[in-house]
Amino acid sequence: MLASRAFSLIGKRAISTSICLRAHGHAGVVKAEDFSLPAYVDRRDVPLPEVAFVRDLSAQQKALKEKEKASWTALSVDEKVELYRIKFNESYAEMNRGTNEWKTILGGVLFFLGVTGLILIWQKHYMYGPIPHTFSDEWLSMQTKRMLDMRVNPVEGISSQWDFEKNEWKK
Amino acid sequence: NIITMSSALLPKPQMRRLLARRMKFHLFGAFFVSVGCAALYKFGIADPRKRAYAEFYKNYDPMKDFEAMRAAGVFESAPPK
Fold first, then answer.
1. Residues 6+ apart with CB under 8 A from A68
2. Average pLDDT of A96-115?
């Protein structure tokens, strides 16, 4: 049905194409958005960005750009700096400057470690039950005595630290 | 303004062989760090351990050791006398 309607339009020449173009403005071209155009960027690995930093020059800057076309020895130091600032936003030194971010990060890490510690203390006090009886001092001394009787790790380990003649730990 | 230009020229920075210089530095460094680590391990851990084992077994009497363990009562199949 749509195809037959189109045919009727062409057949009757009800709308001329030139009128259509004028109605839209520019031959159907869409305005280029900012994000689709080359952009300026301050990056260490991009020494010469695709566009200059300042896009719309003031009258004074335009005059300076005209002066740039002549001999550069005629430019004063301030004019050279102004030309630099037109082309670039931050110098490498400015771009690479350090921040105090590490203090924030370190502070945040230590703070949350502290919170974790408080949580663990609360858990030990209010949540966990008693530890096994095999951790009591009596049991541990019986355990150690049995390990020495069995001569556990006699070369470099626990039995090498015990004096079997004097029945005490080696000094 | 942060950017200032002095009338005297700055000395020309090193332009060439930057990677070569960095590589040479790091090759030497890597070599000495690895050799150092190996030497520290050998003289700090490996050799003392070998000496400890040699000392232990120099005058080791297994039967005496066994009798001592048996007297302490750790064996099920060999009760104390």
1. A75, A83
2. 97
Structure tokens of A120? 């663990």
pLDDT the model gives residue A25: 56
ipTM of the complex in this document: 0.76
Contact by Cβ (8 Å): A79, A67? yes
| Cα separation, B76 vs B73, whole angstroms | 8
Q: Does A81 touch chain B (CB under 8 A)?
A: yes
In the DSSP assignment, the letter for residue B43 is: I
Residue A12: its pLDDT value, please? 55
pLDDT at B71: 96
Burial class for A71, CB neighbours closer than 10 Å (0-12, 13-18, 19+): exposed
What pLDDT, in 10s, does the model give residues A45-55? 999 999 999 99
Nearest-5° Cα angle at A116, A111 to A120: 145
B3, B53, B72 member nearest A81 (Cβ): B3
CA nearest to A52, candidates A8, A83, A11, A25: A83
